[in-house]
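Quick question, first post here. What does this chain look like in 3D?
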Amino acid sequence: MPHLPRLDPHPILRANARVLGRIDAQHGDWRALMQAVRQEGLSSSSEARASLICRGLRPTEAELVGCLAFDEAWEFVDEAAYLRWAEEQALNLFSQRSEEALRSFLELVAEVRKLGSDVSVSPLRTHVPFLRGDRVFAKVVPARDGQLRVTVFPDWRTAADTARSLARAFRAVGARAEASRSTKRPHPGRAGAPRRRR
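> Answer (accepted):
Ran it through. Tokens below.
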């Protein structure tokens, strides 16, 4: 299986670093809290979350540390773990459709990188967002027919140079592009552990 070109840390890592720093400042070392929860003999991260809220943590803080206590979501606090996880997620997401979808995705990443050095490619579980700073300007998913479906978010489409560059990138790989109907740009990721599918 091919390796992806360079991927970038997702903004959620910075958000979670701030959360853990706030816990350290207000409640003491978050790792000590995590170990204390592990020693309680709880059976799930949701029980750990409840215990941590009783200890004075905010719900978002408790959610993150509770997940870490059960070895969940480390990819969202550790950059090296995230980059390994992100490559695996992106490769699985596109190669499950077809080798052609994966090849088109790799070509699209190379084309989108040409938009500038400030563009980042930071895969998540269900899609791959393209960002400038913390702002998502497009996302890509595999379509059922093996092609790529790219959603471009409205406020970025108004920038003519970005729109032209994206259109060239999509044509180069045969991707189907669509404009998001939402006027809101997607949040790049809230602090905490993203919900896992059961």
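Strands lie at 119-121, 128-132, 135-142, 148-152, 176-179.
The first strand starts at residue 119 and ends at 121.
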